[in-house]
Write a structure and sequence with these properties.
The chain is α/β, with parallel strands linked by helices. The protein contains nine helices and 14 strands.
Length: 338
C-alpha cells in the first residue's frame, strides 16, 4: 500500500484548524504528505487545495474515502461528526487521526473499539501535545522523580469567544469549555499521574442564551494525588499548568498552543524559593507540534506500533468529562465510568 516512506493523508473538510494549523504543518512532515482534501462544496475544497498546494480536491467526503491512494484520514469535523466519519473512514480501510474530543460520550467512543478490531486500522485522538518535546520532557522528569512524588496538578486554560454562530458555542455540536479546552487539562492530569481519577467534582456555569458551559472548574481525585483546573470560553486568553511534587515543581509556560515559530519553556523549581532562586529553565527550540503529531501517528502506522493517543486513552478522558458534567448537575462527587 505504501509506495513511499510517507503516509498519504486525506483531510475531511475545510475546517479552520485543518487549514490554518494542521495541514500546513503536515505538508512539512518527514513521514506525511497531504494528497487530498474534501468538502461538501467542491469549490471550497478546490480553493483550499489550491491555497495549500494539495493535489486533489473532492466535492464529497465519500469520494475522498473511496480514493485508493489515500492511506490515512485526518478528521477535523465538528465534534458530533467525529465518530460517524471515523467509522466510515475505518470501514474504507483508512487509518484515522481524529480531532479531540474523539466523541461526545463514552458509549459513542466505545463503538470505535469494535470498528478498530474489525477493520484493523489505527485510530488515534489528536492531542498534539503528546508528541511535543516539552510534554515528552515532563514525562521523563516525573519518571526520574526530579520533583519527588507527584501529588498535585493545577491548570488553567481560557479564551474569549461569545459568537453564537461559532460551532464551539453550540450545545448539539458538543460545544463549551469542557469539551473544547478542559479536555486538555484532564488529558494532561491523567498523563502526569498515569492513572484514572477515582472520583471527580465539577462546577459549571452555562451561558444563559447559548447554554454551553462557559466557565467550568473541577477537582479530580487520583490514587496518587489531586488535580484542579478551571477552563473558560469567555475570559481573558490564558494557559498554564503546574505539577507539584514532594520535592519540587514543574511549570509549562505555554502548555497547549505552543507557537510553531518561537521556543517554548519549562521551569523546574527544585528548592521552593518563592522568589524563584531555585528555578531551572529548559528551553525547547521552535518546532510545530502538528508536524510532530502527524509524523508520530504516521510512524505508528508504518512501524505497526501503538498510536500516541489510543481509543482506550480517549475513552478514559471522555469518562472524566462525562463525570464532571454529571457532577455539575448533581452537585455531588461522581465516579468516572471507566
Amino acid at each position: 500500500m505504501h509506495m513511499s516512506n510517507k503516509l498519504r493523508w486525506g483531510v475531511l473538510s475545510t475546517a479552520n484548524i485543518g487549514l490554518k494549523k494542521v495541514i500546513p504543518a503536515m505538508l512539512r512532515g518527514r513521514l506525511t504528505t497531504v494528497a487530498a482534501i474534501a468538502s461538501r462544496n467542491l469549490a471550497k475544497a478546490r480553493e483550499a487545495a489550491t491555497a495549500l498546494g494539495i493535489p486533489t480536491a473532492y466535492g464529497s467526503y465519500e469520494e475522498l474515502l473511496a480514493d485508493p491512494s489515500i492511506d490515512a484520514i485526518y478528521n477535523p469535523l465538528p465534534n458530533q461528526f467525529h465518530v460517524p466519519w471515523t467509522i466510515k473512514a475505518a470501514e474504507a480501510g483508512k487509518h484515522v487521526l481524529c480531532e479531540k474530543p474523539l466523541s461526545l460520550t463514552i458509549a459513542e467512543a466505545e463503538t470505535l473499539l469494535d470498528v478498530r478490531a474489525r477493520t484493523g486500522v489505527k485510530i488515534g485522538e489528536a492531542f498534539m501535545i503528546r508528541s511535543y518535546p516539552q510534554w515528552l520532557r515532563l514525562r521523563e522528569l516525573l519518571d526520574e522523580r526530579r520533583i519527588g512524588e507527584l501529588r498535585s496538578v493545577a491548570g488553567f486554560f481560557s479564551y474569549f469567544n461569545n459568537d453564537p454562530a461559532n460551532i464551539r458555542n453550540q450545545v448539539e455540536a458538543g460545544g463549551g469549555a469542557l469539551m473544547d479546552i478542559g479536555c486538555y487539562l484532564i488529558h494532561a492530569s491523567r498523563y502526569a499521574f498515569a492513572q484514572q481519577p477515582s472520583r471527580v467534582v465539577g462546577l459549571i456555569d452555562r451561558d444563559p442564551a447559548m447554554h454551553v458551559d462557559r466557565l467550568t472548574s473541577a477537582i479530580l481525585d487520583f490514587p496518587g494525588g489531586q488535580s484542579i483546573f478551571t477552563c473558560s470560553t469567555q475570559m481573558v486568553p490564558y494557559q498554564r499548568i503546574h505539577f507539584f511534587g514532594t520535592k519540587g515543581r514543574i511549570e509549562i509556560e505555554i502548555p497547549f498552543n505552543a507557537p510553531p515559530d518561537r521556543p517554548t519553556r519549562l521551569f523546574i523549581d527544585a528548592t521552593g524559593d518563592l522568589f524563584g532562586g531555585g528555578i531551572t529553565t529548559e528551553t525547547f527550540p521552535a518546532c510545530d507540534q502538528y508536524t510532530l503529531q502527524g509524523d508520530a501517528f504516521s510512524k505508528a502506522v508504518l512501524d505497526n506500533t501503538e498510536v500516541p493517543v489510543s481509543v482506550e486513552d480517549a475513552i478514559g478522558n471522555m469518562a472524566v468529562i462525562e463525570a464532571i458534567f454529571k457532577s455539575g448537575a448533581s452537585g455531588q462527587w461522581e465516579t468516572p465510568n471507566r
